[in-house]
User: What shape does this take?
Amino acid sequence: MATILEPPDTQTSTLPPGPTALPVVGNILAFRRDQLGYLQALQREFGKMATIYIGKTPIVLLFRPEHVRYVLTENPRNFTSREVAERLRQLIGDGLLTIDGEAHRQQRRMVQPAFHKKRVESYASAMTHYTQEMLKEWHAGDRIDVARAMQELTLRIVGKCLFNLDMADQVDTLGSAFTEMIGNPIGLLEGFLNVRIDQPFTAFGRRMAAKRRVDEFIYRLIAQRRSEAEDKGDVLSMLLEAQEGEIALSDTQVRDHIMTFVAAGHETTANALTWTFYLLSQYPAAREKLLAELKSVLAGRAPTIDDLPDLPYTEWVLNESMRLYPPAWTQGRRAVEAFDLDGVHFPAGTMVMFSQWVIHRLPDVWGDPEAFRPERWDPVNGQKVPPSTLILPIFSITSGIVTSVLVRCG
Ligand code: HEM
Assistant: This one.
């Protein structure tokens, strides 16, 4: 079945100019060939905004940080992620990434206790524990596939924090089903086109088969936990206890939240860590500074949450790594009602898209955007960081990773 989105009424308004679109496919081919390069080239050619066509649907690319702020921070109620998130919803259901409006606000309140400081402290000890286990296997001179190692590490951490389970025991079964389901991220393009063919030979079909295996596992675990009625200190326990007035979460809602956290928290963190390793391998001076800070603050012991305020350079390294290689590099929304932005009138239904990859490389914002320079995050250096929380989904390590990711992402 295929659902193609209705184009907005562009008869009464003129969308910003953009590249020539081919009949039927629009700009899909150029976009698919090199998504990041294409977006950046369009920003260089068209400046603040450009319109591309995915099939017949116009999508307005917004290239300025202040545009992102307008959409996500100043007018979030006029911009819905429903259609864009539709494809994701088929896999992870109605979690915080795929719902909006009042339902989103209510669910947000219900899951927030899972990210209170005390809980996050216990997740932090799982993080250091599994990291140390991994490091025991690393020896000087070894060649390590860092991307794979970070995937395995973050999946183990996610499994422990979410449902108190060591995924290493199940890496061939459950681990691979999770990876099959979420490891092949759903592109924005797929989201906009929303074409579904559930067959073993399609990427969509393989994801759906993995989803069925994961669902079976999660629903079995939920049933078992409900019968035990004991707080295991993980996110699942907290979700089962969550209550607003008389309302508790149903099995389906618990499942959807768990799936959302796996999807949102696994690939993103694995990629952020992998790119950080890569950048440190390319910039030995930054690596030396980082190691010196870790040595002086930790003196060889594992970090705790309380050490984070004393590790500013570590935070700048992570910020700078995610500026250059943002794990979430595009976001899309649809305008519920007409709006005016930067002198242009946009009709109701307009699809907008922005890219962290492009915005994090704007020379007038960053000065030397291609350089990996953690020091730019030192407040004394006065870097003009765009004052929107969402352009840079950067988490302040000082306040606990997961909590602040939720606060800043939402
Ligand atoms: C490097 C790590 C991460 C990055 C770069 C990142 C990035 C993002 C971005 C850009 C969004 C906004 C999506 C949109 O509105 O279109 C988002 C939302 C979200 N993220 Fe993250 N994220 C990261 C880690 C995590 C982790 C570890 C969790 C774990 C629980 C998480 C949970 C969520 C949730 C639940 C939302 C939806 C929040 C809401 O709408 O209320 N993220 N993230």
In short: Strands lie at 49-54, 57-62, 79-80, 243-244, 247-248, 331-335, 339-341, 344-346, 351-354.
